[in-house]
Design a protein that fits this description.
By secondary structure, the chain is an alpha/beta fold. Helix content is 36%, strand content 19%. This is Shikimate dehydrogenase (NADP(+)).
Length: 283
Amino acid sequence: MILLGLIGFPLEHSLSPRIHQAALDYAPLEGSYELFPIAPDNLSELKILLERLRVGEISGLNVTIPHKQTVIPLLDDLTAEARAIGAVNTISCRDGKLIGANTDAPGFLADLQQAFARKPWELADQKNALVLGAGGAARAVVSALLSDGWQVAIAARRPEQAEALAAEVSSGKTAVSVAALQPASLRALSADLTLLVNTTPLGMFPRVDACPWPQGLALPPQAAVYDLVYNPRETQLVRNARTAGLPACGGLGMLLEQAALSFKIWTNCSVPRSVWAAAVEDL
Protein backbone atom coordinates (compact mmCIF):
# COMPACT_ATOMS: atom_id res chain seq x y z
CA MET A 1 0.00 0.00 0.00
CA ILE A 2 1.51 3.30 -1.16
CA LEU A 3 0.97 6.47 0.86
CA LEU A 4 1.97 9.75 -0.76
CA GLY A 5 1.28 13.24 0.50
CA LEU A 6 1.78 16.99 0.46
CA ILE A 7 3.34 19.16 3.18
CA GLY A 8 2.34 22.82 3.30
CA PHE A 9 0.06 25.42 4.83
CA PRO A 10 -2.68 26.11 4.00
CA LEU A 11 -3.67 23.20 1.76
CA GLU A 12 -7.43 23.55 1.24
CA HIS A 13 -6.81 24.66 -2.35
CA SER A 14 -4.67 21.66 -3.35
CA LEU A 15 -5.54 19.51 -6.36
CA SER A 16 -2.66 17.11 -5.68
CA PRO A 17 -4.78 14.34 -4.09
CA ARG A 18 -7.04 14.27 -7.15
CA ILE A 19 -4.30 14.14 -9.77
CA HIS A 20 -2.05 11.69 -7.93
CA GLN A 21 -4.97 9.36 -7.25
CA ALA A 22 -5.63 9.31 -10.99
CA ALA A 23 -1.99 8.35 -11.56
CA LEU A 24 -2.11 5.63 -8.91
CA ASP A 25 -5.26 4.18 -10.47
CA TYR A 26 -3.70 4.24 -13.94
CA ALA A 27 -0.41 2.59 -12.88
CA PRO A 28 -2.21 0.63 -11.29
CA LEU A 29 -0.91 0.90 -7.75
CA GLU A 30 -2.91 0.50 -4.57
CA GLY A 31 -2.51 3.64 -2.52
CA SER A 32 -3.61 7.15 -1.66
CA TYR A 33 -2.36 10.73 -1.55
CA GLU A 34 -3.06 12.77 1.58
CA LEU A 35 -2.68 16.36 2.70
CA PHE A 36 -0.44 17.14 5.68
CA PRO A 37 -1.07 20.77 6.69
CA ILE A 38 1.77 21.93 8.93
CA ALA A 39 1.92 25.51 10.17
CA PRO A 40 5.10 27.49 9.43
CA ASP A 41 6.36 27.39 13.03
CA ASN A 42 5.55 23.73 13.73
CA LEU A 43 8.99 22.20 13.24
CA SER A 44 8.30 19.26 15.56
CA GLU A 45 5.36 18.04 13.48
CA LEU A 46 7.45 18.39 10.34
CA LYS A 47 10.17 16.22 11.86
CA ILE A 48 7.64 13.56 12.90
CA LEU A 49 6.20 13.40 9.39
CA LEU A 50 9.64 13.06 7.81
CA GLU A 51 10.47 10.24 10.21
CA ARG A 52 7.38 8.39 8.96
CA LEU A 53 8.84 8.65 5.47
CA ARG A 54 12.22 7.43 6.67
CA VAL A 55 10.76 4.27 8.27
CA GLY A 56 8.55 3.45 5.30
CA GLU A 57 5.11 4.45 6.59
CA ILE A 58 4.99 7.06 3.84
CA SER A 59 6.30 6.43 0.31
CA GLY A 60 6.90 9.99 -0.86
CA LEU A 61 6.14 13.63 -0.07
CA ASN A 62 5.64 16.81 -1.99
CA VAL A 63 6.45 20.14 -0.33
CA THR A 64 4.81 23.50 -0.98
CA ILE A 65 4.60 26.95 0.65
CA PRO A 66 5.95 27.67 3.27
CA HIS A 67 8.26 24.67 3.73
CA LYS A 68 10.27 24.42 0.48
CA GLN A 69 13.33 25.82 2.24
CA THR A 70 12.44 25.03 5.87
CA VAL A 71 12.63 21.32 5.16
CA ILE A 72 16.17 21.32 3.75
CA PRO A 73 18.13 21.10 7.06
CA LEU A 74 16.02 18.07 8.01
CA LEU A 75 17.07 16.05 4.95
CA ASP A 76 20.11 13.85 4.44
CA ASP A 77 20.92 14.88 0.88
CA LEU A 78 19.71 16.95 -2.08
CA THR A 79 19.80 16.34 -5.79
CA ALA A 80 22.14 18.62 -7.71
CA GLU A 81 19.18 20.60 -9.05
CA ALA A 82 17.59 21.08 -5.63
CA ARG A 83 20.93 22.15 -4.17
CA ALA A 84 21.46 24.68 -6.95
CA ILE A 85 17.93 26.08 -6.56
CA GLY A 86 17.97 26.07 -2.77
CA ALA A 87 14.41 24.73 -2.51
CA VAL A 88 12.78 21.29 -2.35
CA ASN A 89 9.34 20.21 -3.55
CA THR A 90 9.79 16.42 -3.61
CA ILE A 91 11.16 14.10 -0.92
CA SER A 92 11.90 10.40 -1.26
CA CYS A 93 13.70 7.87 0.92
CA ARG A 94 16.58 5.77 -0.42
CA ASP A 95 18.38 3.30 1.84
CA GLY A 96 17.11 5.08 4.93
CA LYS A 97 18.20 8.51 3.70
CA LEU A 98 15.80 11.36 2.96
CA ILE A 99 16.55 12.89 -0.45
CA GLY A 100 15.21 16.28 -1.50
CA ALA A 101 14.57 17.02 -5.18
CA ASN A 102 13.03 19.87 -7.13
CA THR A 103 10.69 19.08 -10.01
CA ASP A 104 9.28 22.62 -10.13
CA ALA A 105 12.03 23.97 -12.39
CA PRO A 106 11.76 21.38 -15.20
CA GLY A 107 7.97 21.32 -14.74
CA PHE A 108 7.79 25.09 -15.24
CA LEU A 109 9.98 25.09 -18.35
CA ALA A 110 8.05 22.21 -19.90
CA ASP A 111 4.71 23.94 -19.42
CA LEU A 112 6.04 27.35 -20.48
CA GLN A 113 6.74 25.92 -23.92
CA GLN A 114 3.33 24.26 -24.17
CA ALA A 115 1.13 26.95 -22.64
CA PHE A 116 1.45 29.73 -25.21
CA ALA A 117 0.61 29.48 -28.90
CA ARG A 118 1.97 33.02 -29.20
CA LYS A 119 5.38 33.40 -27.55
CA PRO A 120 6.45 37.07 -27.45
CA TRP A 121 10.06 36.15 -26.64
CA GLU A 122 10.46 34.39 -30.01
CA LEU A 123 10.04 37.75 -31.74
CA ALA A 124 12.39 39.67 -29.43
CA ASP A 125 16.15 40.14 -29.61
CA GLN A 126 16.45 39.10 -25.97
CA LYS A 127 14.35 37.07 -23.57
CA ASN A 128 13.58 39.32 -20.59
CA ALA A 129 11.55 38.07 -17.63
CA LEU A 130 10.30 39.65 -14.43
CA VAL A 131 9.57 37.26 -11.55
CA LEU A 132 7.23 38.43 -8.80
CA GLY A 133 8.16 36.91 -5.44
CA ALA A 134 11.37 35.56 -3.93
CA GLY A 135 10.31 32.41 -2.06
CA GLY A 136 10.83 28.73 -2.83
CA ALA A 137 8.76 28.75 -6.02
CA ALA A 138 10.61 31.83 -7.27
CA ARG A 139 13.92 30.08 -6.75
CA ALA A 140 12.84 27.25 -9.07
CA VAL A 141 11.45 29.60 -11.71
CA VAL A 142 14.49 31.90 -11.72
CA SER A 143 16.84 28.91 -11.94
CA ALA A 144 14.83 27.43 -14.81
CA LEU A 145 14.78 30.70 -16.74
CA LEU A 146 18.52 31.26 -16.30
CA SER A 147 19.23 27.76 -17.57
CA ASP A 148 17.13 28.57 -20.65
CA GLY A 149 19.04 31.75 -21.49
CA TRP A 150 16.73 34.40 -20.03
CA GLN A 151 17.66 37.75 -18.52
CA VAL A 152 15.82 37.84 -15.18
CA ALA A 153 14.72 40.51 -12.73
CA ILE A 154 13.04 39.84 -9.37
CA ALA A 155 10.53 42.02 -7.54
CA ALA A 156 9.17 41.14 -4.11
CA ARG A 157 7.37 42.74 -1.18
CA ARG A 158 10.46 42.08 0.92
CA PRO A 159 13.35 43.70 -1.00
CA GLU A 160 15.98 42.04 1.19
CA GLN A 161 14.62 38.60 0.24
CA ALA A 162 14.79 39.47 -3.46
CA GLU A 163 18.34 40.81 -3.05
CA ALA A 164 19.42 37.62 -1.29
CA LEU A 165 17.93 35.39 -3.99
CA ALA A 166 19.50 37.45 -6.76
CA ALA A 167 22.92 37.24 -5.09
CA GLU A 168 22.63 33.48 -4.70
CA VAL A 169 21.63 32.68 -8.27
CA SER A 170 23.70 35.28 -10.13
CA SER A 171 26.83 33.99 -11.81
CA GLY A 172 29.79 35.53 -13.55
CA LYS A 173 27.97 35.19 -16.87
CA THR A 174 24.46 36.16 -15.79
CA ALA A 175 23.50 38.71 -13.15
CA VAL A 176 19.95 38.70 -11.82
CA SER A 177 18.67 42.19 -11.13
CA VAL A 178 16.22 43.34 -8.46
CA ALA A 179 13.37 45.82 -8.94
CA ALA A 180 11.26 47.49 -6.29
CA LEU A 181 7.67 46.25 -6.27
CA GLN A 182 6.48 49.79 -6.92
CA PRO A 183 4.78 51.34 -9.98
CA ALA A 184 7.70 53.59 -10.99
CA SER A 185 10.27 50.77 -10.96
CA LEU A 186 8.00 48.26 -12.69
CA ARG A 187 6.95 50.79 -15.33
CA ALA A 188 10.60 51.36 -16.22
CA LEU A 189 11.08 47.62 -16.82
CA SER A 190 7.83 46.96 -18.67
CA ALA A 191 8.74 48.02 -22.20
CA ASP A 192 11.42 45.33 -22.63
CA LEU A 193 9.69 42.45 -20.86
CA THR A 194 8.59 39.39 -22.81
CA LEU A 195 7.51 37.35 -19.77
CA LEU A 196 5.96 38.17 -16.39
CA VAL A 197 5.78 35.32 -13.85
CA ASN A 198 3.91 35.42 -10.55
CA THR A 199 5.33 33.02 -7.96
CA THR A 200 3.50 34.54 -4.97
CA PRO A 201 0.28 33.06 -3.51
CA LEU A 202 -1.63 36.30 -4.17
CA GLY A 203 -4.85 35.46 -6.00
CA MET A 204 -5.01 31.92 -4.64
CA PHE A 205 -8.29 30.59 -3.25
CA PRO A 206 -9.93 31.87 -1.09
CA ARG A 207 -8.42 35.36 -1.71
CA VAL A 208 -9.34 35.23 -5.38
CA ASP A 209 -9.62 39.02 -5.79
CA ALA A 210 -5.99 39.66 -4.83
CA CYS A 211 -3.46 40.49 -7.53
CA PRO A 212 0.35 40.76 -7.23
CA TRP A 213 0.62 43.46 -9.91
CA PRO A 214 0.05 47.00 -8.57
CA GLN A 215 -3.47 48.28 -9.13
CA GLY A 216 -3.70 50.96 -11.81
CA LEU A 217 -0.37 50.07 -13.41
CA ALA A 218 -0.57 48.82 -17.01
CA LEU A 219 0.85 45.34 -17.57
CA PRO A 220 3.98 45.00 -19.76
CA PRO A 221 2.65 45.55 -23.31
CA GLN A 222 4.76 42.89 -25.07
CA ALA A 223 4.83 40.18 -22.39
CA ALA A 224 3.17 36.85 -21.84
CA VAL A 225 1.86 36.42 -18.28
CA TYR A 226 2.33 33.17 -16.36
CA ASP A 227 0.74 32.82 -12.91
CA LEU A 228 1.87 29.82 -10.85
CA VAL A 229 -1.43 29.96 -8.92
CA TYR A 230 -3.76 27.26 -10.28
CA ASN A 231 -6.78 27.59 -8.00
CA PRO A 232 -8.76 29.42 -9.30
CA ARG A 233 -7.90 28.35 -12.83
CA GLU A 234 -8.19 31.98 -14.00
CA THR A 235 -6.69 34.32 -11.41
CA GLN A 236 -7.26 38.05 -11.27
CA LEU A 237 -3.80 38.55 -12.79
CA VAL A 238 -4.57 36.22 -15.69
CA ARG A 239 -7.96 37.85 -16.20
CA ASN A 240 -6.39 41.33 -16.25
CA ALA A 241 -3.76 40.20 -18.75
CA ARG A 242 -6.29 38.67 -21.11
CA THR A 243 -8.43 41.80 -20.89
CA ALA A 244 -5.33 43.76 -21.96
CA GLY A 245 -4.90 41.45 -24.95
CA LEU A 246 -1.87 39.60 -23.57
CA PRO A 247 -1.33 35.83 -23.73
CA ALA A 248 -1.76 34.52 -20.19
CA CYS A 249 -2.14 31.25 -18.31
CA GLY A 250 -2.36 29.88 -14.79
CA GLY A 251 -0.16 27.28 -13.16
CA LEU A 252 -2.24 24.15 -13.68
CA GLY A 253 0.01 22.87 -16.46
CA MET A 254 3.10 23.30 -14.30
CA LEU A 255 1.34 21.45 -11.46
CA LEU A 256 0.74 18.49 -13.76
CA GLU A 257 4.27 18.49 -15.18
CA GLN A 258 6.02 18.63 -11.80
CA ALA A 259 3.60 16.06 -10.36
CA ALA A 260 4.42 13.58 -13.12
CA LEU A 261 8.14 14.00 -12.40
CA SER A 262 7.59 13.52 -8.65
CA PHE A 263 5.46 10.43 -9.24
CA LYS A 264 8.24 8.91 -11.37
CA ILE A 265 10.76 9.50 -8.56
CA TRP A 266 8.55 7.71 -6.00
CA THR A 267 7.17 4.84 -8.07
CA ASN A 268 9.41 4.59 -11.17
CA CYS A 269 6.17 4.71 -13.18
CA SER A 270 5.63 7.07 -16.12
CA VAL A 271 2.00 8.11 -16.48
CA PRO A 272 0.87 9.80 -19.74
CA ARG A 273 0.13 13.52 -19.48
CA SER A 274 -3.39 12.84 -20.75
CA VAL A 275 -4.13 10.96 -17.51
CA TRP A 276 -3.03 13.91 -15.38
CA ALA A 277 -4.97 16.36 -17.54
CA ALA A 278 -8.15 14.25 -17.44
CA ALA A 279 -8.11 14.41 -13.65
CA VAL A 280 -8.70 18.18 -13.74
CA GLU A 281 -10.61 18.67 -16.98
CA ASP A 282 -13.86 19.46 -15.16
CA LEU A 283 -12.38 22.40 -13.24
